[in-house]
Design brief:
- About 35% of the residues lie in helices and about 15% in strands.
- It is of the alpha/beta class.
- The chain has one domain.
- It has a five-stranded mixed beta sheet with strand order 2-1-3-4-5, sandwiched between helices.
- Helix 7 packs across helix 8.
């Protein structure tokens, strides 16, 4: 997917530093571009992407990116660090290790989708995900069918509030961080946190 123009805001200095900063360590470019879209929508938030080096995206590499980033970058009290990842490519043990580590650090959290980020995107236009899809390629095909031409960030991202409500209502285990059931996602937790600071008139 082409990278969106707003990626130039990655190291934005135009925001007041008293804004709430969301540091995102994501598994893929689509996730990065989605959350960066909100960087320009309110002075109350900043979105900072902690970039990948090469194609390494396993949970241990996501943690390594953060460990490399932290010594040279200011993370202030109240800022949030989110690992956005899927379950389709990694052993559950490695994901659980990262999830467990986050519980030791205030402001760290995971936003996990089963099996892939496209599940979160589907909830932007659906309160339920029907069918028997279980594999990532099947959810990606469903996403392509949702709107003419498939996924477009300018069609999807403005619907983050309804997506969060749909994903939350469809979550059979909201008390857990790990989505055991296919076609569920915990990304609504990150969306809820961002919406607290975006306010009601950001769109």
């Amino acid at each position: 997917m082409p990278r969106t123009e707003n990626r130039s805001y990655k190291k934005s200095t135009g925001k007041h530093r008293d804004a709430r900063c969301f540091f995102i360590i994501a598994e893929g470019e689509r996730e990065e571009d989605y959350f960066l879209w909100f960087e320009q929508k309110s002075k109350r938030i900043r979105v900072e992407i902690i970039e990948r080096e090469g194609k390494a995206s396993a949970p241990k590499h996501m943690l390594g990116r953060l460990q490399k980033f932290l010594p040279e970058n200011a993370v202030q009290p109240g800022d949030q660090i989110w690992f956005v990842l899927d379950v389709d490519r990694w052993e559950r043990e490695s994901i659980e290790e990262l999830r467990s580590l986050c519980t030791d650090y205030p402001g760290w959290a995971t936003a996990i989708s089963n099996p892939c980020f496209e599940v979160w995107l589907l909830f932007h236009f659906n309160d339920k995900i029907s069918g028997k899809a279980t594999a990532s390629k099947e959810f990606k095909q469903l996403l392509h069918e949702v709107t003419p031409g498939g996924y477009s960030i300018v069609k999807f991202a403005p619907k983050i509030e309804s997506a969060a409500a749909n994903a939350r209502d469809a979550d059979p285990t909201p008390e857990h961080d790990y989505p055991d059931t296919p076609a569920t996602t915990k990304v609504y937790r990150l969306a809820d946190e961002m919406l607290k600071f975006l306010g009601r008139n950001w769109g």
